[in-house]
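Friendly challenge for the regulars: who can give me the structure tokens for this chain first? No prize, just bragging rights.
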Amino acid sequence: MSGREREVLRLVARCTSNRAIAGVLCTGGATVKTHLTHSYGTSGVRDAAAVAVGYDRGILGRIPAG
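First reply, four minutes later:
Bragging rights claimed.
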């Protein structure tokens, strides 16, 4: 998983919308969706469950405190 894909997943984990992620990363919404799709493929999931998989596998670091 690329660094950008991890960054997008971290923002998704914080309940950040795709539009807001695009703004933070200075990119377009389609690019954000592409990063998410690649993250899902790498994780072997089809949706935001990739966030849970990322934390379980240590890809996103430790689960943030509430």
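The longest helix spans residues 29-43. Helices lie at 3-13, 18-25, 29-43, 49-56. Your move, everyone else.
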